[in-house]
Amino acid sequence: MDVFDKCTVNLGPLGQYADVGDGYYFFPKLEGQISNKMIFQGKEMLVWSLNNYLGLGNHPDVRKADAEAAAEWGMAYPMGARMMSGQTKYHEELEEKLADFVGREASYLLNYGYQGMVSIINTMVDRKDVIVYDSEAHACIIDGMRLHFGKRFVYPHNNMENLEKELQRATKIVNKTGGGILLITEGVYGMSGDLGKLKEIVALKKKFNFRLFIDDAHGFGTMGPTGAGTDEHFGVQDEVDLYFGTFAKAMAGIGGFVAAKKEIVRYLKFNMRSQIYAKSLPMPMVIGALKRLEMLRDQPEHKEKLWTIVHALQKGLRGLGLNLGATESPVTPVILSGTIGEASHVITDLRENYNIFCSIVVYPVVPKGVMLLRLIPTAIHTMDDVDYTISAFKDIKHKLETKFYSDQFNKQVVK
Question: Which of 63, 64, 137, 94 is nearest to 297 (CA)?
Answer without folding.
Answer: 94
